[in-house]
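URGENT: need a sanity check before tomorrow's submission.

F., can you look over the Mannose-6-phosphate isomerase-like protein (Cupin superfamily) record below? I want to be sure the sequence and structure line up before it goes out.
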Amino acid sequence: MTECKAADTCSARKAHIASRKPYYRELRAGQKIKWCACGLSKRQPFCDSVSHEGTGFEPIEYVAKEAEEVLLCGCKQTKTGPFCDGEHSNLPGGYKDEEEPQNTTLVEADADGFARLNTPCYVVSPPAMSDAYALARLVAPETGAQFQSQFYLTLPAGSSPVLASDVGDVVLWVRHGAGVVEIEGRSFPFDGSCGVYIRRGEGFRLTASSPLAVYVSECPGGNNLSERAEMGANFDEAWPERIAKIDEDARQAMGPRYFQVLLDDRHGLRNTAQFIGHIPRSKAEMHRHLYEEALIIISGTGVIWNDDFRAPVKAGDVIFFPRKIRHSLQCTCDEGLDVLGLIHPGTNPGINYE
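Structure tokens as predicted:
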């Protein structure tokens, strides 16, 4: 828990832009800071006690109840001061393309379908559909993840076993197919791509009316989902809506890119978000996140870069990004990249830092 004593920041859009990117800081439990809201302080991102005088802005006080890592807004346009909300990407010059780095090494996939960069970041291609139910592990603690897992479920016909997570919430992305997902005795039909939310401890089963391919994420994650002998009847009625569909009206701009959050804490998820996004032909500048991310390439082609290595990506691939690892995703096709992301711990995919 934290305490934040904030001044009115409704007029913060007129504040001076101190930095195009947020400031990463590590705070001690009990540490008190005063964040500069005017953008004129000589001690960015903190108030210097004098520069805001006569500007109409007042610093925002924040007290950390526990040790934490934070991104303090540098552009001063945030609506969630003192913290970054991603608004810097929509400022003039806030989202920049970058030239391709020189002297990087191209990494190809190994026999197991993994293209591993020189960090825990990697690209993995899911297996082809077999003639029976299958569940393949793509992201897990044993592959370097700390906060989430992802599996690839294929079901040509019939029903899957009853699956469940005892350690985290489960989020599905239906890549293709139609059918029904049953959650603790409650049935939800679907036809085509959509997101599905399952509470921690709830059993779920998929039944295919056409061949199904589904990405199954677990946050926080383990190395395996559990199988149960039978379906339970303990559906959490506090969260009745479990299917999320693409809604173009819900898109949020992030420079020339856009994204839509499909599932987050509004639907019952805990410090987790599933989003869909579009990337035009471009190469983002190198950046980092405080969350861990598994990014599914829905369509298009591209290249994932870090400081020393690069790997090609295509439809169906999953890119795993550890926390705080510098990276850049490049779209190399005219039609653009469509992506589906799952982030944890975090709820805003628009927040990044250098």
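My own read: Residues 1-94 form one domain. The two ends are 26 Å apart (CA to CA). If you see anything odd, call me.
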